[in-house]
Write a structure and sequence with these properties.
This protein is mainly alpha-helical. The chain folds into two domains: 211 residues, HUPs (Rossmann fold, 3-Layer(aba) Sandwich), CATH 3.40.50; 81 residues, Tyrosyl-Transfer RNA Synthetase (Orthogonal Bundle). Helices cover 54% and strands 7% of the residues. The strands form two sheets. It has a three-stranded parallel beta sheet with strand order 1-2-3. Strands 4-5 form a two-stranded parallel sheet. Helix 4 packs parallel to helix 14 and helix 10 runs antiparallel to helix 13. It starts with a strand and ends in a 7-residue tail after the last helix.
């Protein structure tokens, strides 16, 4: 069975883009692959400067994944910060990583171009930590969004470099970008993203969900006229959940006229509540059972450690760190 590994940063309430672009794939892949999914809380330290926020957003992301169906019996699910080998390996990889390779990373270049105040060494080294995350577990595939593809390629370059200096040690990873994870559009038709304020959050309560749905931008076609399903943001979002026959029904309503965007939004809201309702209930149940959450993470860390310690031992040997001189 092939192995996958992916990390997710704890960064606020998940939206439809996160779900359809990443989380759903991670969860579905557990049935076909040997899966490792972790919360990238070390990476989060490049931006989060508030310990309470670090704690709660990490817990929330764990709850989100478990509620949405990640099964800790099938997936090794853990926190990056529980596994010391990630930062140990990062240093060793730092020592073989050409500075220029990191200077060319999009995320770093973007930070500089946007005039980020005091960019840190941590941000510069972000792809090396990501390489360590990946190479410790020898995955065949690394499922990521398009924005992370370059980082996986950098991990591959670093592995090649290390192997060429110290001998075959790391398996070369491949990025895997699921076909259907094409960019999900937000309430304004642009890419859905927290930073654009155009999201529909999957665990929002009914009131917030309604507000987000009502804010979807529509054109000014009068109520009685037929409407274009190809350009309508409400219709587009509806197609993400609805069955073929429901989509066809709605298309007919759009095309026959006399059907307003307000009504379409109401249908979308109902669909959202129906689709995510059971997940929301499950999430509440999990949030009330932190003993279970702690156990899941402890077990996950233990399984991850079995792998990471083995690999770290191999790496230490490769570079000449021994426990006993003989
Ligand atoms: P945001 O842009 O809201 O800050 P993140 O950058 O934290 O989202 O994304 C987390 C994960 O969700 C990444 O794997 C990313 O590729 C995926 N993702 C985010 N927004 C979208 C979207 N609109 N469509 C598809 N995937 C997305
Ligand atoms: N940088 C990734 C993101 O922001 C998260 C991440 C950290 C990751 N380490 C990883 C993804 C290793 C895949 C493999 O989305």
């Amino acid at each position: 069975m092939k192995r996958i590994l992916s990390g997710v940063q704890p960064s606020g309430n998940p939206h439809l883009g996160n779900y359809f672009g990443a989380m759903k794939h991670h969860i579905e892949m557990q049935d076909k692959y040997e899966s490792f999914i972790f919360i990238a809380d070390y990476h989060a330290l490049t931006t989060v400067r508030d310990p309470e926020k670090m704690k709660t957003s990490t817990l929330h992301l764990v709850l989100d994944y478990l509620a949405l169906g990640l099964d800790p019996k099938k997936t090794v699910f853990f926190k990056q910060s529980d596994i010391y080998e990630h930062t140990q390996l990062k240093w060793i990889l730092d020592c073989v990583t050409p500075h220029g390779l990191l200077e060319r990373a999009h995320a770093w270049k973007d930070a500089l171009e946007k005039g980020k105040k005091e960019p840190t060494a941590g941000l510069f080294g972000y792809p090396v930590l990501m390489a360590a995350d990946i190479l410790l577990y020898s995955p065949d595939l690394v499922p990521v969004g398009k924005d992370q593809k370059q980082h996986v390629e950098i991990a591959r370059d670093i592995a090649i470099k290390f192997n060429s200096i110290f001998g075959e040690t790391f398996k070369l990873p491949e990025p895997y970008i699921p076909e259907e994870s094409a960019t999900i559009k937000g309430t304004d038709g642009q890419k859905m993203s927290k930073s654009y304020g155009n999201v529909i959050e999957i665990f929002a309560d009914d009131k917030d969900l309604k507000k987000q749905v009502m804010s979807i931008q529509t054109d000014s076609t009068p109520l009685e006229q037929p409407k274009d399903t190809n350009t309508c943001n409400v219709f587009y979002l509806y197609t993400l959940f609805a069955s073929d026959s429901e989509i066809k029904d709605l298309k007919n309503k759009y095309e026959s006229g006399g059907f307003g965007y307000g009504e379409a939004k109401k249908l979308l809201l109902e669909k959202l509540i129906e689709f995510f309702g059971p997940y929301r209930e499950k999430r509440i149940e999990l949030a009330n059972n932190l003993d279970y959450i702690n156990k899941v993470l402890k077990d996950g860390a233990q399984k991850a450690k079995e792998e990471s310690e083995k690999m770290m031992e191999k790496v230490r040997k490769a570079v000449g760190y021994v426990n006993n001189f003989v």
